[in-house]
């Protein structure tokens, strides 16, 4: 085997894949992105790279950033290869690769976030974007209000010049910009949250108000926080992904694999300008809500429909789950009878067509998207993705039979063991608490729904509570596959009634 080419600016012309055509040394920063994971590099960084390939947006380069100690490992990997990333597209019919170069630096990870604050205060930075996970915005999962009592936020309010959080750093940078007579930057959330821009505004403005109400008012009046919907499956990187890069002759410590599908719908509300992302496939729309509702409910909630049962049955990937006849039938029926009915069509696509698309995407065997990754942080994902659908179905007097089974499967997974007796490793920020309740729910299923910070008042719904009780009891006595089979039979009876 030929010797691998280590990815760097100096070796770009030696690669046999598509690579940056622009002069990376001439790029100028315009965006700070906080949370440089695989998704960001396969999605937002790619859109910007495509513009740069056309000779545009050369003053909008990305500077990466992070606020958690674990971000340092990614920083080291990317800086060692000049912030380049190999993207490998895994289409069912073909595998292709390209190297993207829209990121030009990665800030130090440090206590107090001084470098990050200083960079965001630079007038050249016109957008601060982020992918910090759905649970990272300090929002109460039930009320959706700002969680001012969180220790991180209490710390940042008391130490506004040396904050602990990304949002505290944004507030500190916006204070410097205001005091220097500069305008604000746009805050752009790229996380899977309904109204993510509104939530980001709430977090930043509310945190600022805890230490400087006048600054909070200035931010609220002058800064913009557009809502956006993002979509592209980009699995975690492991040995298999590193080997795929090697198949293309490239040594890349931070390679990213992704599906052959991307979507980005953005509210056109940028106070300091923006790249023309629409020229390379993004959509600017005044109705981001409709697009994000379709995606969050059918794709993101759909992930939770199958990941928990897949974990219980020992299936490693989402594609394996979709290849299981019982899980596929469960997924399809829940989607078409209880989820898609809560979603409106968007230009060019009906909910039923989107379900068809998601079945195809989830079934792609080349995408090694693990059930563990998808099931991670269920306390945020079920609260954000699944339970709003339950509430809508109950309000409309429609069935929640399948959705109650989804929640029962999550409760069973959180007990921490698979049906074959192997352990499920901790996979949620409150895993110990969830496991304790899951074991109590084995004998008294209602205990699971009494977690009010997750379920609110749903335990008081007899329709939902009784159905959940039925499914969880069956799962513990007869197993998951029996419950899936029973649900399919009930669904068939209802369809023929």
From TrEMBL:
Q: A single GO molecular function, which one?
A: oxidoreductase activity, acting on the CH-OH group of donors, NAD or NADP as acceptor
Q: What is this protein called?
A: Mannitol 2-dehydrogenase
Q: Does the keyword Cell cycle apply?
A: no
**Residue ranges annotated for the Mannitol dehydrogenase C-terminal domain, each copy included:** 287-473
Species name for this entry?
Aliiroseovarius sediminilitoris
Segments forming domain Mannitol dehydrogenase N-terminal? 30-278
Task: Determine the domain of life of the protein's source.
Answer: Bacteria
Lipid metabolism among keywords: no
């Amino acid at each position: 085997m030929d010797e691998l080419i280590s990815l760097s600016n100096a070796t770009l012309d030696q690669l046999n894949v598509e690579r940056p055509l622009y002069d990376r040394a001439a790029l100028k920063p315009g965006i700070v992105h906080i949370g440089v994971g695989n998704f960001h590099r396969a999605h937002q960084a790619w859109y910007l790279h495509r513009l740069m390939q056309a000779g545009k947006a050369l003053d909008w380069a990305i500077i990466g950033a992070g606020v958690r100690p674990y971000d340092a490992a990614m920083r080291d990997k990317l800086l060692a290869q000049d912030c380049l990333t190999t993207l490998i597209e895994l289409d069912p019919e073909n595998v292709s690769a390209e190297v993207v170069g829209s990121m030009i630096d990665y800030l130090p990870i440090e206590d107090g976030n001084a470098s990050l604050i200083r960079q965001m205060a630079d007038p050249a930075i016109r957008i601060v974007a982020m992918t910090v996970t759905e649970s990272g915005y300090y929002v109460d999962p039930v009320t959706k209000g700002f969680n001012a009592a969180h220790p991180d936020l209490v710390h940042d309010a008391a130490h506004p010049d040396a904050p602990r959080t990304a949002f505290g750093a944004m507030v500190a940078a916006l204070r410097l910009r205001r005091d220097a007579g500069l305008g604000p930057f746009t805050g752009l959330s790229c996380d899977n949250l309904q109204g993510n821009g509104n939530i980001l505004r709430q977090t930043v403005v509310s945190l600022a108000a805890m230490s400087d109400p006048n600054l909070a008012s200035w931010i609220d009046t002058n800064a913009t926080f557009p809502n956006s919907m993002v979509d592209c499956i980009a699995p975690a990187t492991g040995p298999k992904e590193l080997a795929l890069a090697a198949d293309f002759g490239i040594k890349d410590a931070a390679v990213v694999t992704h599906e052959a599908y991307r979507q980005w719908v953005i509210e056109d509300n940028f106070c300091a300008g923006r790249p023309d992302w629409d020229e390379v496939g993004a959509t600017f729309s005044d109705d981001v809500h409709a697009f994000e509702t379709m995606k969050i409910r059918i794709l993101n909630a759909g992930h939770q429909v199958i990941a928990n049962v897949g974990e219980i049955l020992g299936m490693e990937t989402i594609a394996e789950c979709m290849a299981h006849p019982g899980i596929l039938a469960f997924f399809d029926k829940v989607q078409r009878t209880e989820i898609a009915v809560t979603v409106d069509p968007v230009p060019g696509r009906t909910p039923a067509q989107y379900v068809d698309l998601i079945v195809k995407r989830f079934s792609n065997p080349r995408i090694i998207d693990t059930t563990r990754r998808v099931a991670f942080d269920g306390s945020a994902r079920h609260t954000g993705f699944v339970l709003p659908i339950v509430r809508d179905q109950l309000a409309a007097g429609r069935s929640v039979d399948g959705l109650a089974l989804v929640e029962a499967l999550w409760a069973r997974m959180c007990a921490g063991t698979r049906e074959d007796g192997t352990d499920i490793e901790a996979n949620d920020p409150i895993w110990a608490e969830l496991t304790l309740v899951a074991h109590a729910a084995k004998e008294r299923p209602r205990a699971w729904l009494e977690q009010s910070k997750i379920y609110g008042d749903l335990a008081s719904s007899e329709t939902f509570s009784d159905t959940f009780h039925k499914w969880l009891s069956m799962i513990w006595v007869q197993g998951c596959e029996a419950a899936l089979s029973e649900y399919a039979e009930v669904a068939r009876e209802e369809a023929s009634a």
